[in-house]
Specification:
about 270 residues, alpha/beta, TIM Barrel, eight-stranded parallel beta sheet, 9 helices, 8 strands, globular, binds zinc ion
């Protein structure tokens, strides 16, 4: 990702954002009929390079003691960087789920939507990149690596899913709506986007974000995507509020991919097929 400007929501930040986020969650939770704990997942993408924002993100989750899945780009992570991360947090803690985010975050599609693991590539090259990616991360992170895959731009081909399954990955995480009918591998999809929103103004963006949050609670599965490179003070404020609300609510249970039930279980929970 080369873009670094926060999306319109945070550049045109509505003054009543706190009340609206709080009201959305409270109203959606009030409507729930199921007494079951509601799984919540946070996934941060484009990890590998140390920056002020990245360390601030780790500090925020550590402060709230809330689990986080981190999608690491294999070519961005070096031993030196991993050692530096390790001096900042205990990387072996179950609070963190360090997993794979592509190989080099490169688009290979000549036309259409951006994709690193898409239809433009041969099965051989897809396989090579998945294998060298997980080998590199295992080599650097050792047992702290969890075999899950977040494809860059939240999409990948059916062939990639089959390869992931063959190579022993335990799940994938794409956007909601990318799922086909045939689930080869568990998909812990994302249904709330905090930082790459495309609306035209802040008010509309906040409304759309609240809609996503409310719908996700209604689906009994909330999975929130984070892009720390795009975060500003306002984005940190909003995430801080969300983490506070989530940690205060006994109904919500934050997990990583490692503790989540598979998508078959999730589809039973959410009533979707
Ligand atoms: Zn990415």
């Amino acid at each position: 990702m080369t873009q670094s400007r926060p999306c319109i929501l945070y550049r045109d930040f509505p003054g009543d954002w706190r009340q609206r986020i709080r009201r959305t969650l409270v109203t959606a939770l009030d409507r729930l009929e199921s007494p079951e704990p509601l799984p919540v997942l946070f996934r941060a993408d484009d990890i590998g390079v140390l920056s002020t924002n990245f360390l601030r993100l780790l500090d925020l989750f550590q402060h709230h003691q809330i689990p986080l899945c981190l999608a690491v780009v294999p070519t961005w992570l070096t031993r030196t960087r991993w050692t530096a991360i390790n001096t900042h947090v205990d990387t072996s803690s179950t609070q963190w789920c360090w997993h794979q985010h592509g190989w080099s975050h490169t688009n290979h599609q000549a036309t259409g939507k951006k994709c690193e693991f898409g239809s433009a590539r041969s099965i051989r090259s897809l396989r090579d990149d998945l294998e060298r990616g997980s080998n590199r991360l295992r080599d650097i992170m050792g047992r702290d690596f969890s075999p899950f895959f977040t494809p860059p731009w939240n999409r990948c081909s059916q062939e990639t899913l089959a390869l992931l399954s063959t190579l022993g990955f335990r799940g994938v995480s794409r956007s909601k709506g990318e799922q086909g009918r045939k689930a080869i591998i568990d998909d812990f999809y994302i249904n709330v986007d905090l930082h790459t929103r495309k609306e035209a103004d802040g008010g509309t963006a906040l409304e759309a974000l609240c809609d996503e949050l409310g719908r996700a609670v209604g689906e009994h599965y909330v999975a929130i995507m984070i892009h720390h490179q795009l975060m500003s003070q306002s984005s940190f404020d909003l995430l801080d509020l969300l983490l506070s609300l989530v940690s205060q609510c006994g109904t919500l249970k934050v997990c990583t991919f490692n503790e989540l039930p598979g998508s078959n279980m999730l589809s039973r929970l959410t009533g979707s097929s």
